[in-house]
Amino acid sequence: MKVDRRTFLAGSLGLAAGAATTALLAKPKYHVIRRRARSRVAILSAGSYSENLEQILRHGLELFHLDIRGKPVLLKPNLVDYVPGNHINTHPLLVSAAAECFHRLGAKTVLVGEGPGHQRDTELVLIESGFADQLRQQRVPFVDLNRDELVERPLLANYTGMKSFWLPRTIVESDFVVSMPKVKAHHWSGVTLSMKNMFGVVPGAKYGWPKNILHWKGIQESILDICATVPVHFVIADAIVAMEGNGPLNGDARPLNRIILADDPVAADATCARLMGFDPDRIVHIRAGAQFLGNCSTSRIDQLAEPVCLPEMPFQTVPEFEYLRVNNHLDGLT
Amino acid sequence: MYDPQRAKHLCSEQLIARQLPQGGWPFNSNAKQSAVEPTALALLALSSNSVRERDAAIRFLLHIQNPNGSWPAFVGDDGEGSGFTGLVLYVLNCCGVGGKADDRAIRWLLHSRGWESHWLWKWKFRTTDRHVRFDPDKFGWPWMPETVSWVVPTSYSLLALKNCIPGSQEDLLQFRIRRGVEMLYDRTCPQGGWNAGNGVVYGRPLAPHPDATAIALLALRGEPANHLVTASLDWLERRAQVCSAPWSLAWTILALNAFRRATQPLINRLTAVVQSDEINDGATLAVVSMALTCASGLNAFGVHS
After folding, report:
1. Whole-model pTM above 0.80?
2. Is B74 in Cβ contact with A207 (below 8 Å)?
3. Is B223 inside a domain boundary?
4. Tell me, what's the ipTM?
5. Does the domain spanning A34-331 belong to CATH 3.40.50?
6. Chain A contact set for B26 (CB, 8 A)
7. pLDDT tens across A189-210, in order?
8. Using CA atoms, how far apart are residues A117 and A267, in angstroms rounded to an integer?
9. CB B107: neighbour CB atoms within 10 A?
10. Which residues of B touch A13 (CB under 8 A)?
């Protein structure tokens, strides 16, 4: 077998990642177990953002029989920055459709909240990405989580070595948090999906722009600590147009024409990873999260609506994460 | 017809109404937790007629100063120090407050530095971690301890140190100012301007942000003219043509005015924004208030046109 330099490099990185995962998994560092016996994931078709997303979502949500009557619901989209032409953020029309659906399901309140990690002017991102108009039309309030009142909470996992996080009061007081990521490859973490999306609840007013401490403590470790401490109750992932390559800002658009719904963030992210042509077991925070935050294995996931359809060609990544990509014919997927 | 003076008056009234009993301001108008950035900006924005409010704000800021001389980000924060320390020191100096609090803050700022200045991390960024284009020899100030330098805390710190009276550590002060200025130049985006501090990542340029660009330009005022400053001012002028977000627009006006570029159309636009919608965020309200003052020839960042 001929091994070229690229394959060798990818293999070495895979081994290094495997070692890192093993190190993370070696000793349980969590004080909470959110993983249930089984999880449910629904893959919904949506050809474009101009389709009737509310109807698609409503049908999808019916599969889960959610009881959110009387609960305050927080929708947490992925708003990073606005670069014309780049599919960086969760689409405002999808967030708007979700808000309408949760209102119809009897939520006490529906808020949208986000704390962008790069851009300090959240209102600028809201205005230029079309969110501001959309939310105003629907009278859905928005909370800038970077500048919310802060409450200190002990971490329910200890992968970063930090003891506590200051968190926005809005997050702490939400009974039902819906992570709404944009499905993207990410140059620091491999992927940014529903779990990585929760970086946005860490307030910039305390941790800065970007939230650099999370990088120094380890991105994968930080994802685990945040998701252990701030439960994600539901996921609506925007993969109508996803991003491959040098995400989260400078990647290329990759239409998948799908919306992924799940009652478990690990199951959601594992499924999204499969749709991207990645092996979820090679993604450190998904694999470690499968110990206590949710289910990664397809044997523990009830697949609703459409089946997982592997792409002809896995998503492009930066070289450091090429080991995530599965060669469908050789590797297979679990 | 929009009137900047009337809009400014409106902002001042709202600022005064939102001051919390202990003297600080929150970010969110409904919140009860004072934060340092809106408080410092509000103090700078209030006119000298608001004696009672200004005195209360000064007392509040002095009261919450950390024992190590830094300022926390908000009431209840740990005592390690935040990237807003430079802003508070600058504002207190503008208000004529000096003394021990001032000395302690300067001492803290002189010894606070981005982690890239440490030999081990410098080595890391030179060898194994080279995806963000920057020179770790050129360092400034971080948002919080044990992290690297970023544009906004570095700019706030430069504003403070350039305006303070040098004490016994004059050489160190000049060294930190020089390094901080070099760091800002090193972190410019290829098209001019600044974002948080990552100009090029994985070989691809990232877009600058209006607010970070404006704050960096204010910190660089007084430095010899050069093409990076000119390119950044040009970019900011172009960007402002399509910007209606009050925080970014207000910082843009303050910076362009400080560099004697035209701002009247931007002030008119900001006036329209203020009169059409209430600004919920306290820090934004304060910066908008300062930007509207530029219409009468005053700039809170030390420039009188």
Report:
1. yes
2. no
3. yes
4. 0.95
5. yes
6. 149
7. 999 999 999 999 999 999 999 9
8. 25
9. 17
10. none
